[in-house]
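ARCHIVE CARD
SHELF: 3
SLOT: left
DATA:
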Amino acid sequence: MEIAACRAEDVEVLDRFMPSSSVDGNHAARFARQEAAHSTYLVPWLDGRPVGHAEVRWTGCAAPEVRAARPGCPEINGLHVSPASLRSRGIGTALVRTAERLAGERGVSFMGLGVGDDNPRAAALYARLGYLPAVAYVDRWAYRDADGVRHEQADPCVFLVKAL
């Protein structure tokens, strides 16, 4: 497996293998933030196909509760491994470790990420990797359904932080 920053030509491939209906979390939006130097959009490749993604948002978490409690803390956002049959095989761990390495290269001394209250499996992974609870918050995001109708979501989460 190889993990690399997303390239322009990867966006179409990501859309084909892992379509996203998220308004701000779709592949094109994440790549645009990377191009603006606000993030690094990491993509793991296995046998020539993408098998996940994670965006390192150097500008931090968008949630005001997190920004107030942990100003300047970069965030690993949208970590996803696909297909599900590849989960629990080290891809998520490799994405987190790559994000941490990039942060270290920038002189960043801590990293954060959010986990939904309804995702104990991910929470267990992050705890094993040394991430500790810092602040509860509500992740607000939007998606478009098959008819193009926008829907708003609000998910209770915990922002976890690790000293690097």
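SLOT: right
DATA:
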Amino acid sequence: MKFSGKNVLITGASKGIGASIAKVLAGFGLKVWINYRSKPELADALKNELVKNGTNAAVICFDASNELEFSAGIKAIIESDGELSYLVNNAGITNDNLALRMSLDDFNKVVNTNLDSAFLGSKEAFKVMSKKRFGAVVNIASIVGEMGNAGQVNYSASKGGMIAMTKSFAKEAASRNIRYNCVAPGFIKSDMTEGLSEEVKKSYEENIPLKRFAEPEEVANVVAFLLSDYASYITGDTIKINGGLYM
């Protein structure tokens, strides 16, 4: 894939899908900024792995849902590299419960954290990318933001809101040649899904037309495509990565 930009910031990149995105993008020659909020040992281990493989990476710590911290993080990247070409808003949280048992605080915490982080990143990226009239942002949404899910009223609302917000940013930023898109993953192999019993995993897989969970790299490859020059005429879209579970 071809990339006209030089670097990328990935929030919540120290593990899971974020770490896979970092590895794929580093493999395409981008300098990868690995953001984390806690557990620096995971972020440092990922950076060391990337550097050992001959790619360029740096670690940056800030809370993606905090406006002052996100702004300071972007400023540090600009001071180091002189630009920010790409952003992946991956940071997010869950706190599942049935709606009737979910408190307003539990609802707001997930919605606010997930939407605030994506909004702040999208806004700060807009500011710095406008100066050179180039850039691309990918927001990591979810299948539940499109189809809903029992026990995830708060998470579904946050991801559905993210999809709508991305469309609005895409319309505002298009005149500056800045693109905004989403990916909406379904069931992905992760620490969480690996903890499920074989019986439960099999029942989930039976409902997926492709009959399997996705590898994290399959999400990362789509993210890379959307950031790349190959997707230069795609903006405001949401790409489903769910094996046909929701079409």
